[in-house]
Amino acid sequence: MDKIISFNLMDIVNVVWNWRKKIILAVILVTGITAAIVFIIPREYLAEATVVAANPNLGDRSNIFNTTFEQQFSYYGAGSDNDRLFEMSRIDTMKMFLIDSFKLEDHYKISRTNSRRRLAAYNELKEKSDFYVTELGHLRIKIWDTDRKLAANMANTVVNKINQRSIEMTNAAKQQIIKKLQQQQESNEAEVKQLIENPAPGVPAEINTARKTSLLKQIEENNTLINQFKVSLNNVSNLYVIQYATPALKIDRPKRLPIIVMAFLLSLFFSVLAALLLNRLRTDK
Length: 285
Prior knowledge:
alpha+beta
């Protein structure tokens, strides 16, 4: 067995030596082309921001006006809350917002004669951004760009935009409740006015009085609810920012040296393999 291995190793060494010029040429060619491409590709900086959802119940009317808490609740949102932030960060409207806000069509140097200029900017931004939820449940926002400051500004803009949109969604639901309560108030007040100014004929006074008392109590309760919901309408952040994006100190991609080394090793391996196969074919003939 040792002789076979020794023979095979010597055979490989002999083949490599006989084909050394072609192997070296192939390795230099592939490595050189790879290096040229890597140095032509614009170098990009990475900006990262990390956020986690706040518990949406913190701004709920019942929690704001509750003076006794029977059970402890977290200030942080659940998995579904982080998933909601994740979906808002990755949707197409967010990318379009960034394209318009930072004039990315011009920044990416997309020709003005390109009829699909906006789509080209969208596709490039898609390649230069990444959004995902980490194992710890944090939303990670990554933006790459040749301009380190622009990359950081874009990442932080995503943070602010998803927070703004989340607040708008929460407040919109509360506004709908306030609107329905106010409509009910108008109806109750109109009925009270009717009972006072023009009570229904033939209805005992006791019944009208009881009905009026009930309506006035309901009006008072609704006023309390309306005021509480109005107080709960706020711009309190719906997320906690663990890390704002800052301009990167070093370039993130492409990682030139590892790519060139990998190209060298792969070209060397496949060149030797090709030499062995070609030599075997010649020997078999």
